[in-house]
Amino acid sequence: MSRRRILTVDTDLAELKLVSQPVEAVDDQLRALMDDMLETMYAAPGIGLAAIQVGVRKRVIVMDLARGEDASPAPRYFVNPEILWASEDTAPYEEGCLSVPEIYDEIERPARVRVRYLDYNGARIEEEAEGLYAVCIQHEIDHLNGVLFIDHLSRLKRARAVSKVRKAAREAA
Which of 15, 39, 102, 140 is labelled catalytic? Predict the structure, then answer.
């Protein structure tokens, strides 16, 4: 396993806006990518990561919603995930993103969704998600479609967020 560079809006916005391509098969090469993504996500640290965020245009997501020092890792893998149904009721959640470092804002999303995907071994899974899981899976699927969480904000808030990330990157250099 190896850590990969996470693309950020200050330098890689055009690449982050690309739509990811479906995966043909879950094989050892794809599992190696997912392992690298998981290691990268943990090191960042984050709770979800889409392949496009490490420069790979494949419809692949990794996620681990376990939090805190006492929590045991609970990695999840999603290949070709799709939302089959979304509830009409919505819920606000303060979101952040590894590609938009140190920026957080409240986003309103469907409170529950039904998702279908292939897991780490290629098995087809269909399940309902709610709470943080629903927020995270929608956020990550957005990435696969070239949408960042800041795209759900007003034009002014989005511009401010990108400006803050650019300024922080300049100051860190």
Answer: 140
